[in-house]
C-alpha cells in the first residue's frame, strides 16, 4: 500500500515547532500545532504591513459585518481583532441585530466597499435565515473579498485553469497545514465531511484543484464511514462533536478537524471548544491530526490577515512596489 506520509519522516518532523511529539512507542498520531503555523504567517504579514505603511503611507484595513450573536462567530471576531492588532492591520466591526433588514446589511457592505481605508471585507456567516445570503455576498466588491466567499471567487475556485482573486481562508488554512507537513495531495483520496459555503465546499474545491480525488459527504449521506474508511485524508467541517470515530479512519490517515462546537461540562458547567473528531480514538489510528482547539482555527485567522494584505498590496500596487 502506498503510504501518504512516511512514518520516519513524520517522526523527524515531530521535533519541529509546528507539531507535538508522538509517544515514545511511535504508535500515536502527530498532533499539529496550528498556533505556531499561524505565528509564522503572522510574522511575515506584520513585516509586510510595516513596509506598506512606509511606502504607501496608509494602514491596511479590514471591515467585518456581524449580524446576530452566534457564539462561533463571536469567537472568530474576537480572535481576528486581536490578530489584526498584533500585525498592525486596522480592523473595524459593524454589528447589526439578529433582525436587521437586508437593506441595512447591504448598506453596511456598500459603506465598506466605498471606504478607501478598508481593503478587505468579511461578512460573518451564517446570516439569519430571513436574509438572502447570495445577494449579500454578491454585493461585496470582488477586490475586497478577502474571505473568498463571493460567488465569483467560489466559481473561479471550481473552474479548471482559473484562479480566484482570493482563496477562502479556512480552505487555505487546511492546504497550508497539509503542505507544511509535506502531505502529498495529488492522486490521493480525500473525504470532506460537510459542504458549508465557508468551510466544506471551498475545502473540497481547493483539494480538487491540487489534484486530489475528492468525495463530499453531508448530513444526508448514508454511512459516511464507508467513504472515510478508504480515505488518505479526512477533513471534517460539520460542527458535530464526536462525529468522526477511530473506526471511521484508515490506518495512517491524515485528519484535519475544522468543526467548532461549544459543549458544556456537566459537572462544572464550563464551556469547552470541541471539534468533530473523537481525538482519543483517532490518535491511535491516524498518522497526523489537526486538533480543535489549536489547529485549523488560528491558521484561518492568519490567512484572513494574509488575504487582507494581498488586497491592500494590489490596490496600492505602484506605491508598494517603490520600496519593497
Ligand atoms: N476552524 C475554522 O477555521 C472554521 C470552523 N468552522 C466550523 O466548521 C463547522 C461547519 O461550518 P459551516 O461550513 O459554516 O457549516 P454549515 O452549517 O454551512 O455546514 C455544515 C455541513 O455539515 C453537514 N453535516 C451536518 N451534520 C452532519 C453529520 N452528522 N454528518 C455529516 N455531515 C453533516 C451539513 O450537511 P447538510 O447540508 O446535508 O445539512 C452541511 O453540509 C462549524 O462547526 C463551524 O463553526 C467554520 C469556519 C472556519
Ligand atoms: N464569512 C465567514 N468566514 C469564516 O471563516 C467564519 C464565519 N464567517 N463565521 C464563523 C466561522 C467560525 N470561524 C472560526 C475561525 C477561527 C476560530 C479560532 O480562532 N479558533 C481557535 C479558538 C481558540 C480559542 O480562542 O479558544 C482554535 O480553534 O484554536 C474560530 C472560529 C470562522 N468562521
From TrEMBL:
Domain of life: Eukaryota
Family assignment from sequence similarity: Belongs to the tetrahydrofolate dehydrogenase/cyclohydrolase family.
Domain Tetrahydrofolate dehydrogenase/cyclohydrolase NAD(P)-binding intervals: 168-315
Tetrahydrofolate dehydrogenase/cyclohydrolase catalytic domain residues: 32-147
Record GO biological process: photorespiration; tetrahydrofolate interconversion
Pathway(s) per entry: One-carbon metabolism; tetrahydrofolate interconversion
Keywords: Hydrolase, Multifunctional enzyme, NADP, One-carbon metabolism, Oxidoreductase, Photorespiration
MF terms (GO), sorted A to Z: methenyltetrahydrofolate cyclohydrolase activity; methylenetetrahydrofolate dehydrogenase (NADP+) activity
Native source organism of the sequence: Adiantum capillus-veneris (Maidenhair fern)
Job description of the protein: Catalyzes the oxidation of 5,10-methylenetetrahydrofolate to 5,10-methenyltetrahydrofolate and then the hydrolysis of 5,10-methenyltetrahydrofolate to 10-formyltetrahydrofolate.
Assembly: Homodimer.
Keyword Hydrolase appears in the UniProt entry: yes
Single GO cellular component term: cytosol
Pfam families from the UniProt entry: THF_DHG_CYH (PF00763), THF_DHG_CYH_C (PF02882)
Catalytic activity from the UniProt record: (6R)-5,10-methylene-5,6,7,8-tetrahydrofolate + NADP(+) = (6R)-5,10-methenyltetrahydrofolate + NADPH
UniProt protein name: Methenyltetrahydrofolate cyclohydrolase
